[in-house]
Amino acid sequence: MAPRGSQRVVNKIVAENRKARFNYEIVDTYEAGLVLTGTEVKSLRDGKANIAESYASDEGDEIWLINSHLPEYLQANRFNHEPRRRRKLLLNKREISRLRAGINREGMTLVPLKIYFNEKGRAKLELALAKGKKLHDKRETEKERDWNRQKSRLLKTG
């Protein structure tokens, strides 16, 4: 029988926002904790979360994750959670003030990149301070990606 600690998968990514890197220019990233209920954690461990349409908002002295979807945990019956409820993010006051400065002064956006479990088994959110890309920037990104793909094919065939 394996020891209890070895069964854990380190940094298991539960949900990822892949469109964020295409739609936004990432300036800075932060790791934030999530305030979750027990059924939300169990639902996350099933790996069915979705943060593609979610964003973070600065309200008062707190940062909130809005519009993320954690489906209900099927075995929880009446003690279940609401799938699209707002979830509080746990950050230091210094980090919150930096994020607030980026939002207010520079017109940036808070975009969630991924939800994962760290080494201690805690659910964490990778949050990015980002600038929105214009249409020509997106085209440039797509051209660069296609060129890199072609370049790797050419180097393989030699």
TrEMBL record:
It is found in: Cytoplasm. Keywords: Cytoplasm, RNA-binding. Pfam families: SmpB (PF01668). GO terms for biological process: trans-translation; trans-translation-dependent protein tagging. One of its GO terms (cellular component) is cytosol. Residues 134-158 are annotated as: Disordered. One of its GO terms (molecular function) is RNA binding. Residues 137-149 have a biased composition (Basic and acidic residues). InterPro entries: SmpB, SsrA-bd_prot, SsrA-bd_prot_CS. NCBIfam families: PRK05422.1, smpB. Required for rescue of stalled ribosomes mediated by trans-translation. Binds to transfer-messenger RNA (tmRNA), required for stable association of tmRNA with ribosomes. tmRNA and SmpB together mimic tRNA shape, replacing the anticodon stem-loop with SmpB. tmRNA is encoded by the ssrA gene; the 2 termini fold to resemble tRNA(Ala) and it encodes a 'tag peptide', a short internal open reading frame. During trans-translation Ala-aminoacylated tmRNA acts like a tRNA, entering the A-site of stalled ribosomes, displacing the stalled mRNA. Belongs to the SmpB family. This is SsrA-binding protein. It comes from Rhizobium rhizoryzae.
